[in-house]
Amino acid sequence: MPKSVPDPNLLVGLDTSDDAGVYKINNETALVQTLDFFTPIVDDPYMFGQIAAANSLSDIYAMGGKPITVMNIVGFPINKLDKSILADILAGASDKVRESGAVLVGGHSIDDQEPKFGLSVTGTVHPERVRTNAAAKPGDSLILTKPIGVGILTQAIKKDMLDQEGIDRVMKVMAALNKEAAEAMDNFNVNACTDVTGFGLLGHAMEIAEGSGTGITIDSKSVPVLPKTRELAEQNIIPGGSKKNHKWLTERIQYENVDEVDQWILCDAITSGGLLISVPEEEAEALLGVLHENGVQSAAIIGKVTDKQPGRITVIG
Ligand code: CO
Ligand code: CO
Ligand code: CO
Q1: Number of folded domains in the chain?
Q2: 19 C-alpha vs ligand 3 centroid, how far in Å?
Q3: C-alpha 3 – ligand 2 centre gap (Å)
Q4: Is pLDDT of 16 > 90?
Q5: Which residue among 8, 107, 240, 263 is least packed, with the fewest CB closer than 10 Å?
Q6: CA 22 to centroid of ligand 1, rounded, Å
C-alpha cells in the first residue's frame, strides 16, 4: 500500500483547529473553503438568514480571504412550517451575501425535523497572506473587533428578559460582516487571526496560544462587552455552552482579580463574533485607527502575546 503523501498545496488543513481550509492553486492564489450551519438562534427568519450568512462568511475573513461564491445548506420541515419562513431565511442570507460581494451559486435542501440553515463559502487569498491562528508572535498586541456577550443576550431573549433596544443591538452585532475588519488588516503585518464563535473569546484565544506556542495575557477591563451582559450574567443567564467553555478552559487560565461572572462572560459562546487579531505592537494603534475609520467602532486592544507559559492564558482584572 502506498503511503498517503501530504499534498504540498494544502496550506491549512485539519491538523490545526483553524477557521477554514486553504489550498494553493498557484503562486498568486489559494482557495479558502468553509462550511457552517445551525438551528435558528433568533425568532425572526430574515434576521436568522442574515446572521447565518455573516457567521459563515466570517471564517473566510478570519483567514485574510475574500469570499467569492457561496452555497446554501437547508434543512426545513416542509409539511410543518410555512414556506414563507424559508423564503425569509434565504432572503436574509442573500442580502448579506450581496453585501459581502460574493455570489450565491447554488445549494441543497432536505426535509428535516427542525429548520437548519448555513452556507458553504469559497474565497481566495494570496498564499503568502494567509492569516492562520498558529503564527502569533511574542510582543504582538491582540485586537478584538466586536463586543462580546452575544450568547448571554440571546439566552436572555429566549427567556423574554431583554428589551427591544437590547434585542436590536445584539442582532445588529451578529449580523455585521467582518468584511471591513478583514479589509483593514490588509495593509498590516498581521501574524494571526481567528474569529470568536462557539468557544468564546478565551477559547479562541486559547487556540491562538496553543497553535502559536505562545502565552497570552488578556486585560479583561479593555474587552468590549455589550450593555446588560453583566447584569444578566449575575442572574445566571448563561448558555450551557458558555459554562462548558469555562470548565474545559479553567486549568489553563489564570484569573487575577476576575470574578466568576466576568469569567463566564469571557468564555461566552458566541455566534458570528468579531475577529481576534494578533499584530506587532508597533502597528497595533495604526490598525486600530483604520478599523475605527472603517466603521468597526467597538474594536479595541485587549491584550498581548507573550513568550511565557506557552499554551496558557492570564486574565487580569
Ligand atoms: Co471561525
Ligand atoms: Co466556523
Ligand atoms: Co485565521
Answers
A1: 2
A2: 6
A3: 30
A4: no
A5: 8
A6: 13
Q: What span, in angstroms and rounded, lies between the C-alpha atoms of 136 and 131?
A: 10
Q: How far is the CA of 255 from the centre of ligand 3 (A)?
A: 26
Residue 46 sits at the vertex; the CA angle it makes with 155 and 231, to the nearest 5 degrees, is 20
User: Taking the CB of residue 188, how many other CB atoms lie within 10 A of it?
Assistant: 16
In a domain, 4, yes or no: no
- Grid cell, residue 33, equals 473553503
Angle CA 189–225–175, to nearest 5: 75
Give yes or no: residues 16 and 119 share one domain.
yes
pTM of the predicted protein model: 0.95
In a domain, 135, yes or no: no
Mean pLDDT, residues 148-154 taken together: 97
What range defines the domain where residue 302 resides?
140-316
Q: What CATH number did the domain enclosing 287 receive?
A: 3.90.650.10
C-alpha cell recorded at residue 57: 462568511
Q: Are residues 273 and 176 in the same domain?
A: yes
Based on the fold, state whether residues 310 and 164 are members of the same structural domain. yes
Query: What's the CA gap between 143 and 178, in Å, rounded?
Result: 13
User: Within a domain: residue 133?
Assistant: no
What spacing in Å lies between the alpha carbon of 110 and ligand 3's midpoint? 31
* Cα-to-centroid distance, 208 and ligand 3 (Å): 9
Measured from the Cβ of residue 14, the count of other Cβ atoms closer than 10 Å reads 8
Instruction: Compute, in angstroms, the gap from residue 256 CA to the centroid of ligand 2.
Output: 30
Cβ atoms 234, 149 nearer than 8 A: no
Q: What percent of the chain shows pLDDT beyond 70?
A: 98
**Are residues 271 and 247 part of one domain?**
yes
